[in-house]
Give the backbone structure.
Amino acid sequence: MAAPNTPNTPGNAGPGHRPNNGLKPGFISRGRKSLEPEHKLNMNIRAREVRLVGDNVEPGIFSIQEALRLADELELDLIEISPNAEPPVCKIADYKKFLYEQKKKKKELKANSQKQEIKEIRFGPNTDDHDFEFKLKHAEKFLNEGNKVRAYVFFKGRAIVYKERGEVLLLQFAQKLAEIGKVEQLPKLEGKKMFLLMAPKGKGSK
């Protein structure tokens, strides 16, 4: 096994190189843009000392020689993850796996940041079948797009005496959408309106 402070030579220099590194043949060195390192790795880290973090080592400040030695022993890469810190923060890990985890986290954050809208569907207590089916199709579209649906029955004037009819209508509405939506709030009367809230089912939900 070569020592961590082996000087760079034409045979061992290049992005991502370290003595006896664990990178698979062709990783980074094939010249494909998508495989070029996004971080400083191994012998390319120029700091005299670094702060190590991660699961493989006891966190702390180490000389660059010691950090490279630890990475070499584990057959992993020394990755500079916070170059502007003092000293720079590095992690010992498999670089390809590290990039995969970073990409996965970014994707999850993006998905969580997308705002979920609440679309409203209005009914009257005497809504006919044609109007019901028309609005049902709109609700299906909203749920399939990932939005919540708040359906409500508006009781105008003395129509409030038909609140049971409104409740039956909303429950029927929820039943029709059961395959793609789940009820988050059962019919509830608030003033002159009775509300039902539904959310889209996630993949794999039954």
